[in-house]
Input
Amino acid sequence: MPDISVLAVCAAIIFAGSAVQGSVGFGMGLAAVPVLLRFLAPTTVTPLITGLAIVMNLSIFLKLRHDADWSLIRPLLIGSFVGVVPGSLLPSALPLSVFKMGTGVLVIVSGVLLWLGWRCSIERKSLRFCVGALSGFLNGCISLSGPPVAIFLSAGDVPKNVFRASMSAYFLSLNIATMAVFAGEGILDVPYFALLGCLAPVTALGTLSGVCLSRLFPERIFRAAVMVLIIVSGLTLLF
Output
């Protein structure tokens, strides 16, 4: 358990990251993880963020559950579970730095194209499955599952509340599956749950603050914020 000063800093970081995800639908890891790694060990940060993400995505989903499009989510989830295993094997076959750089460039280009007006249909289940598989693949190799789904839903002109509700349902399912893996590995010990218990209320408060803030965003501003976050997530992979 970190001392009180480190805990206070971590709480502030978590609040800001959960507010970002509460307002846009993704971005907690992007906003919080790089800063948290300055204060906590990577072996602590990964399961901690996963546990807090369950609190965060559950908070969003409960608020927006009636807007979730399960016909859209199911093929994404099936694809993600298929893609995660090959993704976990990639680091042993290819230098991870090369792959991260290539992925970063593709994410940035996709974000810029979205900004310039690129759109695609999201009606085909096969395409949803492929996007989910790519998301799972990236989650398995570099723990970055958000951009493919965010790009796909943005390109399909999914309405703001459907976007956020569907993203939260998708990530909630992935977070629960990941926590089950952590539990099987025996890394969820008493200090972990103590830290999780301290930061969970802050996460819920930040998330609900973001959800309330998002109500003030017109659709145009919301879409611009999503595109900016997509581009930033690509940039983080280049450095």
About this structure: The chain has a mean pLDDT of 84. Residues 90 and 96 are 8 Å apart (CA to CA). Residues 160-185 form the longest helix (26 residues). The radius of gyration is 17 Å.
